[in-house]
Amino acid sequence: MNADDRARTAGQAHAEGMVVRRQVLSDAHVDRAQARTSAFTEPFQDLITRYAWGEIWTRPTLDRRTRSAITLTALVARDHWDEFALHVRAARRNGLSVDEIQEVLLQAAIYLGVPAANHAFAIAEHELAQYEQSEAGAGTDAGTDADTDADTDADIDPATHIDTDRERGRGAGDR
């Protein structure tokens, strides 16, 4: 990255980040996140849009497929299950196949532990089924239904490993 690239303004990073965020997470997800933004959460929304999406996801060295695989692994490692569910769908949008997501989770089982991978497989299976169902129903704009939301206050059912707030259509947070 040269000096001209680093000289971007915060506004440019935000604008570029918003484009990537919408492409990866879906317009519908980002629209819902923006609709829920309050004066209190606005600085956080700006932070993640500028830095996560505008500075990191826009870097040219790694493609989005690779970034998605890394992100899935990191979310499993940190037990961030609601974000993991969101990024399973994002990984499909970024071109990872179901088999590649499965391989990421098998790799995670070895390096992060079988219990974490077991939980990840349960969530991923549910999210992949929802993604495929929404893709079949939506045609070109797959994965834009309410199940795409991530909740920061998620209530994960221990039996099914499913975010029960998401199943009831509630969501307080976003990434």
Written description of the protein model:
The chain is mainly alpha-helical and 175 residues long. The protein is built from nine helices and no strands. α5 (64-77) runs parallel beside α7 and α6 packs across α8 (114-138). The chain is globular and about 40 Å long. Residues 140-175 have low confidence and may be disordered.
CATH architecture: Up-down Bundle
How many discrete domains? 1
Residue stretches low in confidence (pLDDT < 50, at least 5 long) are: 140-175
Q: Strand portion, in percent? A: under 5%
CATH class categorisation: Mainly Alpha
The counted number of beta strands is 0
- CATH fold name, please? AhpD-like
Order of helices and strands: HHHHHHHHH
Shape: globular
**Radius of gyration, in angstroms, nearest whole number:** 16 Å
Q: How would you characterize the largest beta sheet?
A: none
Helix content: 55-70%
Put simply, the count of helices is: 9
End-to-end gap: 26 Å
Mean pLDDT: 83
- Kindly name the structural category: mainly alpha
CATH superfamily: AhpD-like
